Amino acid sequence: MKGIGSVLMMAGVAALMGACFNEPDYPAQPVISLRNLAFFQPSSGTDSLVVELDFTDGDGDMGIDGDENDTLFNERFYFFRPAGASDFRKVSNRRRNGTYLRYRDKFTDIRYDTLPFFLKPFNCTNYEVLFSTSTTPAVPLDTLYTQLNPNYNNLFIEFYIKNGTTFTKYDFNEVFTYPSCELNGFNGRIPVLARDPSNPGPLRGVIKYAMRSAAFDIIFGGRTLKLVMYIQDRSFRRSNVVETGEFTLAQIRR
Description:
Helices cover 5% and strands 35% of the residues. The radius of gyration is 21 Å and the shape is globular. It starts with a strand and ends in an 11-residue tail after the last strand. By secondary structure, the chain is mainly beta.
């Protein structure tokens, strides 16, 4: 994870298929429940906040592989204008020769004057800065307008911090700003789980998700927290939402 650490995904899954018994009648919408939550601080290495979720998925279309970055599961959308065209079209990557909608267009073309400003603290959700690759240090060359794809990940975890009697969502985008942008927080990707993706069947298993960071104590130490979580299948069906109880890192340290 940029800025505060990295994320590791592990999953133990049972594929419930076969001719010797009836397949379980799980709903096609994923269903999750919280199994365990623990915080590990090894004597050497990176701290880990580990969540374990029990889950079912009735039709088995669960998972996004790490190299899937097509139109369905790309991280950002760009706005591309082919040569000779009068306007931009939405595309899933920028591996094209042509013109992209840029921040400067906000000030030079009245059609795009409603684009958001890119000002301090430089929230990175709407813009991507392109750098030169031939200079050290790299020099910013251009700033492209983008839109984040909400379906880039399929496991979503929100952190909430208790302030008095209420909880406030911790927004990674507001804390980790340009040039140390953090677009996804601790959201992540469950890999494709079906043994045969062309013929998936009901799935039941445990997702063990380790959020790794050297900054847990710096950011959250001594604070009362709770997590809110859900998953999503390849048909974009969201599971139920589960919440942890309130906790401190010290209370769940193992």
